[in-house]
Amino acid sequence: MHYKQAYKPPTLTVDAVLFQLVDDQLMVLLTRRAEEPFKGEWALPGGYSPEGQTTIQALASIVKRKVGLDITADLRYIEQLYTFDTIARDPRGHAVSVTYMGCGYAITTVGGSQFAEWHPVDQLPTLAYDHADIIAYARERLSAKLAYTNAAMGLLDKKFTLSQLQTVYEAVLGRELDKRNFRKKFLNLELIRETSEVWKGGAHRPAKLYAFNSDSPETLSRSFD
Q1: pLDDT by residue, tens only, the chain of 225 residues
Q2: Domain 11-146, CATH
Q3: Domain-by-domain residue ranges, the chain?
Q4: Are 117 and 154 in contact (CB under 8 A)?
Q5: In this structure, CATH architecture of domain 148-212
């Protein structure tokens, strides 16, 4: 087969949708772009995926350099989300983004070469590229995974109360849940175990602390819903 034009591959990039809860709100980490295109606008941490590295290796290097996070040490959960390849998503030319989604707990240190902040997913500023759509897709994926996996562990401390667990579900799903019904259904899944410790924070009486049975991704035998 003869081509009329020389083959020109699209640019390969990686992006990170990083979630955590702050004051019971689901937040996503954004960086302020220092260069064109979209100079001064907010965007997901990301960059070019170079030859000789897998996309997850490239992502780890970029996230560490740009926002000062170690995706292995600072995140409790990470997975490859989707490959976004809309032709016109980057004004500089066809760019394919292999995007990852990660969840962390109580991440306080954000540094690196770019200015970065946590933003509520329900109150996002104007975003560069198609990053608003990517964040919406990531939240939908995370919401779905709460129904059939132990993904909630990524947004919690290793030991937590049932109220804190419910807060994670409500923040991700964007709606309130009935307390009694939530506890009954979740405990029936046998995903967590009661520990011998109690949480003494706040004005309420001490609450039992629980832990997930596994720190690795686990699929449920039946849906939480």
Answers
A1: 566 788 889 999 999 999 999 999 999 999 999 999 999 999 999 999 999 999 999 999 999 999 999 999 999 999 999 999 999 999 999 999 999 999 999 998 788 888 999 999 999 999 999 999 999 999 999 999 999 899 999 999 999 999 999 999 999 999 999 999 999 988 888 889 999 999 887 667 789 999 999 988 888 877 776
A2: 3.90.79.10
A3: 11-146, 148-212
A4: no
A5: Orthogonal Bundle (1.10)
pTM above 0.90, yes or no: yes
The strand ranges marked E within the chain are: 11-22, 25-32, 42-43, 46-48, 77-84, 95-103, 116-120, 192-199, 207-212
With CA atoms as reference, report the closest residue to 151 among 178, 173, 131.
Answer: 173
